[in-house]
Amino acid sequence: MADELIMDSKALIFATLADVYLSSGMIDEAISILKDGLARNPNYTLGKIMLGRAYYLKGDIDEALKILKEIYELARDSETENLYLGHCYKKKGDYEKAITHYQAVLKINPENREASAELEILKPQKKEPTEEKMTAPFEKAIPEPVALPREEISAPTEDVKLPSVKEFVAQTEEPPKEPSPVKEETIEATLPLPELGLEPIPTKPAELISPMEALNEPMRHLLEIKSVKGSFILSRDGLLIQNYYQGRTDLEEIGALIAGIFNEAEDAFKFLKCGQLEKCIIEKKEETICVITAGESLLCIITQPEAKPGLVFLYARKIIEEIRKVLG
């Protein structure tokens, strides 16, 4: 969805902000922003696609399908429109339509892995009428039973002699069975492994994930933002705790600069009794530094000068929670 926003030169700010909310899991906030924005821009098709996507992520499949179907003629060439129509039809059990829209996604973007994976799942579920066609001739070949009238059924002409009770019992009694010989159980002695010349296979201890490694995944999502150049975590004294900015050699000097500016600003806040400083922005000619408090640490994000700090702070919200859990 972010790629379509970048390609759309008329993308409005409320759609960009809603996309950030959806990426952060804030679905209700995204729906509220999209409804408000579409009330003022009712013909903005991309905003309606995002609203349908938001309702799908919320679990309201009927509302999502209603919105996406209304704009399909205007957005039939949209990758996201076809993808989420496919998702909705799959949830409704209409696999034929779901496959049609997933195939449309791959025509627009052959590298869409999500649509490819869904097609692999759905294609075996298509119903093929081969079984009914094969069994039909055999069913017709089986003759149906015909009821005959009683007059055509001839009664036995001779009297049938039934055996007496003693004869019947004698015929049904079985001769006594001889007891089967009891097999002697043999107990095999089991020798310990060293006496057999075998050594136990050493087992590898389970690898433990360090607390800092738990930050790798959320940080990876942050660094995928095109305007973000890199990120790192500092102590309040400016010491580098964790580096996510590969190839940068002056992080110690930048860390000292950031810590000095942040501590001076925090002292000014205390002096003015304005509460605690939570975030600040340091603008340089060639880059912008966004600094956010994370417990006793500082999360520093270096971006391009044209980046929107508000969007960066929104993306960083979840990472801040993880850093506070790890570092306190």
UniProtKB/TrEMBL annotation:
InterPro entries: CellSynth/LPSAsmb/PSIAsmb (IPR051012), Roadblock/LAMTOR2_dom (IPR004942), TPR-like_helical_dom_sf (IPR011990), TPR_rpt (IPR019734). TPR repeats lie at residues 11-44, 45-78, 79-112. Pfam families: Robl_LC7, TPR_1, TPR_19. Coiled coil: none annotated. PANTHER family: LIPOPOLYSACCHARIDE ASSEMBLY PROTEIN B, TPR REPEAT-CONTAINING PROTEIN PA4667. Signal peptide: none annotated. Keywords: Repeat, TPR repeat. This is Tetratricopeptide repeat protein.
